[in-house]
Amino acid sequence: MPLKLDPRLTPKKLLPKLERFFDLSGRKILAIEKSWKPSDGTPVFTVKGRYTTRGWTEWTQGFQFGSAILQFDATDDRQFLDIGRRKTVELMASHVSHIGVHDHGFNNVSTYGNLLRLMQEGRIPANDAERDFYELALKVSGAVQASRWTRLADGTGFIHSFNGAHSLFVDTIRSCRALAVAHLLGHSLMGEQDEKVSLLQRFVEHALNTARYSVYYGRGRDAYDVRGRTTHEAVFNPKNGVFRCPNSQQGYSPFSTWTRGLAWAICGFAEELELLEHHSRRLAKDLKAMGLNLVMVRREFLEAATATADFYLANSCADGIPMWDTGAPNLHRLPADYLKRRSNPFNRWEPVDSSAAAIAAQGLIRLGDYLASTKGNATQARRYRQAGLAIADTLFSEPYLSADPKHQGLTLHSVYHRPNGWDYVPPGQKVPCGESSMWGDYHARELALLILREAQGRPPLAFFAGI
Q1: How far is the CA of 197 from the CAs of 79, 142, 290, 335, in angstroms?
Q2: What are the CA-CA distances from residue 227 to residues 205, 222, 353, 363, 404 (Å)?
Q3: CA 93 to chain centroid
Q4: All domains in the chain, ordered by first residue
Q5: Distance from C-alpha of 123 to C-alpha of 462, rounded to nearest angstrom
Q6: pLDDT digits (tens, 9 = 90+) for 254-311
Q7: Greatest CA span in the chain, whole angstroms?
Q8: Is the pTM value of this prediction over 0.85?
Q9: N or C: the chain end with fewer CB closer than 10 Å?
């Protein structure tokens, strides 16, 4: 494993960096709030340090306002709670009923979900009308997300991406928590002739099919089957539900690994394992009624989580930052031992992706904590947890932490869509660097808050807290 681990690194030792991180974070949020016009669309990524939009799907607005809510959780500064509350009410309703995307867990759990969590935790005053509003939004969001359903030949199915009914995106493994929240709130999707469709069943089937088709296990599935790698998109024949091939929209190829997709898998499966453990009694009963077994589901989720975590750690630089794709075409131009060195975001040949690191680090900490709490492999648990803390230590320092007050981004050296050429390449450079993304900044804040809450002795950060 190239990543160097320090067994002495703890959340409390990271407190000085966390304090600086959230000080800078608050300044960035206010700078965007001051300059951004909602009529311009949703801020997606920075160009020359200023947030800009990119029309594809509006999947980052929840991260914009969710960031303000996380900032309040970390600092108790009510101006950020006010921003998050007000903008959620004013601008997020269309995302609740958006039938055209697979991003409900990103947009709506990050806003309505975080606000409900704060109320359930007693961080904001209890208010029945406000709670009902958040719960209704989350119920509808989960059901709308679940309606994007493709049936497979074996009778199960998956939530298809915005590409269409043939397309299973690995990203959705984290976004499908919208279904889990809606189920915990007692909701179902109602179909023709009042057919009652279980959101839990669709959530679990989607996750199991992601584990089956998006994650590799070194079992000879194809000539490029390496344990733990992922494919961005699994393509199916929607006529008969038969798997056809892997594909990649944002990575280099179907047979290399786009590292942000890999990170989504680590984080998504780890979070879902936490959910199954926390609500084990209730969910075991609910799953049994559907003919599913909680032990089997846990086993499949854990295998996917550990395989992807191991692959990430084997394919990241010594400070935990990965290149944007493990098969990027110019990696051979880097020093032969580049994975044994600290990452170089200013190299001439291929970009790194700090957003993948922020997402993966959270997943690694969660996975380590899950294994420790369930008496799993203690060595694995320590390895994953310390790896997550080590990556956080890197991200909360220069050159990844953005201290420039003129730069609206918080976490530098994020990549959006390398194949489409959407990322800004500064003068004198050959590849993108120095810019931020809304999802990267949000997940860095979420990672920092996860660690901060532990350092302060507060309850773990969980999307299902109090439900």
Answers
A1: 40, 12, 11, 53
A2: 22, 12, 21, 18, 40
A3: 21
A4: 12-455 (1.50.10.10)
A5: 14
A6: 999 999 999 999 999 999 999 999 999 999 999 999 999 999 999 999 999 999 999 9
A7: 63
A8: yes
A9: N
